[in-house]
Design goal:
By secondary structure, this protein is an alpha+beta fold. It has 12 helices and 15 strands. It folds into 2 domains: 251 residues, BirA Bifunctional Protein, domain 2, CATH 3.30.930.10; 96 residues, Enolase-like, domain 1 (2-Layer Sandwich). Helix 4 crosses helix 7 and helix 11 runs antiparallel to helix 12. The chain is globular, with a radius of gyration of 22 Å.
Length: 382
């Protein structure tokens, strides 16, 4: 009988936003040379950290003034998705491996495969968890865990899961950039609790983090037929993690990327199955000067970059926008052999909303005196 494969297991608590993400990237980049098939890390952040998705506009997602006052650290993940808060009662799971070690055709297959032990562990607790199409785990239709995957150019894979043992909803609502003037606190909390749940809310009020980790560890070993061996990061590894943390996750260039330029005075917002889409546009008369596409989506960065590039200094025409978007989508889908969850028409709508708003701010002007609007721009439809 062949010996069971071994995976390295790391467990940490109360890490900073920058160290937590730096350690995950270190594990991921090490997979090109790792002797083990995978590294698995269960960890918690300090109270509290806010992490935005790879493609989000950070200032639009987080209340930075409150974060500074309340000492809430913030940074940007390598994986896509939406903004989350992490702390002592939200378990971070990172599985780092290489694409060559698993047989799959589409990225979604890896989401299902890597989240299977989490689903199994929750069902062992009599919590009926399921994989939801938009990269979440749900219980009775409410999100209990968010998932994300990043694949490096060399084929190294980082799988993220943020599992909610518990959640301070009022804190989350203060950290996330929600227009509170439209809602009272009770309505906001009720709205969140209709969409998000926790393990303690699902009949396990006394469940502790240690017991949850133990159960998850056993389930990963069972589902992947491996033995996990404890191996904390050594001194030299800690130094490498520190470099990742400093050079990327503490860097303003990284944290504040996907931020609109001051002259991008048109913003289009559209809710899609792939996530919330935010598009910013700057105009010079009836010419598109620049475009920025952001959102809590998981795939398609190459598509959005191509659209941004092709629309730069192009005429402001709906037909041209549609031609560029459909062409970019078709090119990506042919290369990846799978369809993006976002429809081309949805991106076209968001671009046209942004363009109309930008044109309304400075209609037919060429003086270049653009500015970022202060008025409320959420929720408008084309």
């Amino acid at each position: 009988m062949a010996a069971r494969k071994k995976w390295r297991y790391v467990e940490e608590d109360a890490v900073s936003a920058w160290y937590g993400l730096g350690a995950d990237e270190y594990m991921t980049e090490a997979q090109s040379e790792a002797a083990e098939e995978a590294w698995l890390r269960f960890y918690t952040y300090r109270n509290h950290c806010a992490l935005v998705g790879r493609f989000q506009h950070l200032q639009a997602e987080l209340n930075l003034a409150y974060c500074e006052r309340a000492d809430v650290q913030y940074s940007r993940r390598l994986t896509g998705g939406g903004a989350i808060i992490m702390g002592a009662e939200q378990l971070g799971i990172c599985l780092a491996t290489h694409t060559q070690r698993f047989d799959f055709q589409r990225l979604r297959e890896l989401y299902v495969l890597f989240s299977k032990p989490v689903v199994g562990a929750l069902r062992a607790l009599e919590i009926p968890a399921n994989f939801r199409s938009r990269n979440d785990l749900e219980v009775h239709g409410r999100k209990v865990a968010g998932l994300g995957i990043y694949v490096s150019p060399t084929g190294c894979v980082q799988f993220h899961c943020s599992l909610l043992l518990d959640l301070d909803v009022p804190l989350m609502l203060r950290v996330l950039n929600i227009p509170r003037e439209k809602y009272d606190d009770k309505r906001l909390i009720r709205s969140v609790e209709q969409r998000i749940t926790t393990l303690r809310r699902e009949g396990k009020p006394n469940l502790q983090m240690h017991d949850l980790r133990t159960l998850l560890r056993e389930q990963f070993e069972k589902d992947f037929d491996v033995d996990l061996f404890d191996s904390a990061f050594g001194e030299s590894e800690q130094q490498q993690i520190g470099k990742f943390a400093q050079q990327r996750y503490q860097s303003e260039d990284w944290i504040f990327q996907h931020s609109p330029q001051p002259d991008m005075n048109g913003m289009g917002l559209k809710k899609t199955k792939a996530g919330l889409l935010r598009v910013y546009i700057a105009l010079k008369g009836e010419t598109i000067k620049s475009v920025l596409i952001t959102g809590d989506f998981f795939q398609g960065l190459e598509v959005f970059k191509e659209v941004e590039s092709l629309l730069k200094w192009s005429p402001l025409e709906r037909e041209l926008i549609e031609e560029v978007v459909h062409s970019a989508f078709a090119k990506w889908e042919e290369a990846q052999r799978e369809k993006l969850p976002l429809e081309p028409s949805e991106l076209c709508d968001a671009l046209w909303i942004a363009a109309r708003r930008a044109r309304a701010e400075h209609r037919f002007t060429y003086d270049g005196s653009c500015y970022y609007p202060e008025k409320e721009t959420r929720g408008e439809n084309p």
